[in-house]
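Entry type: protein chain
Record version: 2
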Amino acid sequence: MGELGATKCVNNLAVFPTFEKGYAALKQFLIYACTDQLRSYKSTMTLLDFYKVYAPSADKNNPLNYATAVAKDLGVSIDAKISSLYSPGPVAPIDIHIENQLDSKWAKYYLGDVKTSGFNTYGCHLFCWAYIYSVKMGKQISPADVDQIFMDKGVYSGDLIDSAKAAKALGVEWLGREYDINKAPGWYPTIKEVDFSIKDGKQQHFVIREYKNGRKIIKDPYQGVERPINYYEEKVNAPNWEGGKFSYRLVKIK
């Protein structure tokens, strides 16, 4: 597990410097197992076969109990092939949602040290990063916590978030911006910059580009709702991003 960030081995167990790095390594290990990238695991293994190797009875484990519990959580059989349990790109657990920046609970929060830019009015970009980080960590993480991480790591310039620094601070990958609507990233979730334009003139806004139940959607910090993937293109009559502030912000969970 050294290539995944482990610093040592104690009693045959890999030790990681932080919970976050250990959790990320476990996710990557499972991907490797499901895609034939580990010597001891094959993608054709059933869930039970996997646990017979991962948690063998010789080490005083009960592979059947493990497999049964996980199968129940996933809604599959213990005979399901592990390859069928993996799909490219992280999928947000059902309890992870985009926070509503208009919620009154954020009324007294400000971006970084700038006391004129509140979460309620300028927090959309931060809220998108909080969603990305929540998916990475597998649990709901508050935008206020991500705001603190960004302050600690020097991500802000005034109230503006430096995307490259934000990605580094959260341990995800930053691949730049794409301005061609036809060159959408092939993974989910990621961040999308859109033209809001509720008021006169062009107004920048950020949403999450996500895939759910076989369809592309956006998760919108404005009101904390899901919308059709092209909601803002239609709103400002820019089906091909003509004259608007649109781009794909290419952030990728490792």
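Comment: The mean pLDDT is 89.
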